Amino acid sequence: MRLDELQSLMDDLYGEADRARGIPPTVAWLCEELGELAQAVRKGTREEQLHELGDVLAWLASLANQLDLSLDEAMARYVDAPPR
């Protein structure tokens, strides 16, 4: 799945609820999911790690949608001029 497809999927599935929730709570949920990913990396199974990676990507896509930003554009600098 491409990043633009991810954003479209998240918008189709959750866009209305995400916009109603707003940006600050979405950032809080993203942070919570990052914490769960960190725990899964330290102590979890491969399946738990995949689950949490998916959750982080979903919340990141939700945040990008609410900010009206493209994850593809955000990642372009890693293609064009990667930070060193």
Short summary:
With 84 residues, the protein is mostly helical. It is built from 4 helices and no strands. It has a single domain, classed as Helix Hairpins.
Give structural notes.
By secondary structure, the protein is mostly helical. It has a single domain (3-80), classed as MazG-like (Helix Hairpins, Orthogonal Bundle), CATH 1.10.287.1080. 85% of the residues lie in helices and 0% in strands. The chain has four helices and no strands. It has helices at 3-21, 23-43, 46-66, 71-80. Helix 1 (3-21) crosses helix 3 and helix 2 runs antiparallel to helix 3. The radius of gyration is 14 Å and the shape is globular. It starts with a helix and ends with a helix. 13% of the residues are buried. The mean pLDDT is 97.
Helix and strand arrangement:
Elements (H helix, E strand, L loop, with lengths): L2 H19 L1 H21 L2 H21 L4 H10 L4
Helix pairs in contact: 1-3, 2-3
The major beta sheet can be summarized as:
none
The CATH homologous superfamily name equals MazG-like
Shape: globular
- As a percent range, the share of helical residues equals over 70%
Supply the CATH class: Mainly Alpha
Number of strands: 0
What class would the helix/strand composition place it in? mainly alpha
Report the span from N to C terminus: 27 Å
**Radius of gyration (Å):** 14 Å
Count of individual helical segments: 4
Level-2 CATH architecture: Orthogonal Bundle
Unreliable parts: none
Mean pLDDT: 97
Q: How are helices and strands ordered from N to C?
A: HHHH
How many discrete structural domains? 1
Query: Which oligomerization state do the chains in this entry correspond to?
Result: single chain
| CATH fold group | Helix Hairpins
Percent of residues in beta strands?
Answer: under 5%
